[in-house]
Fold this protein.
Amino acid sequence: MSLKKYAALAAVAALALAGCASPAATPTDGAGAHSDLKICVYTHGDGGTFWTVAQKGAEAAAADLGVTLDYQGSTNDAAKQASTIDAGVAAGCSGIAASAPDPEAIKAAMLKAHDAGIPTVTMNSGSAVFKELGAFTHVGQDEVIAGREAGLKFNEMGVKHVLCPIQEAANVGLEDRCKGLAETFTGKAENFNLDGGLADLTAAAAKLAAAFKADKTIDAVFALNADIAAKAVLPAAETAGVTLKVGTVDMSPEALDAIAAGTMEFAIDQQQYAQGYMSVVLLYLALTNSNELGGGLPIYTGPGFVTKDNVAAVKDLVAAGTR
């Protein structure tokens, strides 16, 4: 497929996601036609199961569009992410996409980019604050909506007490997921401090097991990360000798295996490959054709649900690194 056709299809996809009616223009054809453009994607990512897929999406879009990509994760260090954005502005980023789990920490850097005439978008986290950061749209999942949908799923299961472990204390996106859960779940939805859980899954499992033993009314867990779900929640339930209904946000091979085996009920797919890919496409169109897609609204990539009914179809794509 030619670059011209691929970019046009990507633009159509963005318009469909945003609900916009404006016609998409066609960028210049020819591989390498815009190799002078440097699109920078600076996230709070840790290079783990989730973020490697988002990075692959950004890399694929850059290759398809013939632009230079600078992708950097900050491993949940907001100060490092802010300094990376500042450095990117100084180093000649043509456009910047940034995740915003701690918006205030990167606000000055993002506004500096905006004031310098650099088009920006937020991705993954930041759907409620992207305008305050100077971005023209956000690509990702509304975390409150995701949590609400999870709450409805747990209602269908008939559970009464859902624990919602938060593994990054300063991440507003995680807090929003638990907030959404509490809005729709008809039983007790309880936040649980699991800060640093991803850095030490064994310690996280021990902390969860203690909670399960201490409160036997807990009959479900809404994990906010697939590794937390598969490598901490499930082992903790086994250690505590309890049976729980477990749902998670995002996917991993282990989580999908658990869904297929019936030990996990669902995974919410926010389609992070699309987040990385579309962020690059949106900036490319802004730079080459003055398009600012989204109509002033976020462009949603989720939530979608992976359950036992459709897990087989998704597993191959996860293995390929695109889901």
About this structure: Confidence is low (pLDDT under 50) at residues 1-30. The chain has two domains: 3-141+271-301, 143-261. Residues 161 and 218 are 5 Å apart (CA to CA). DSSP finds eleven helices and twelve strands in the chain.
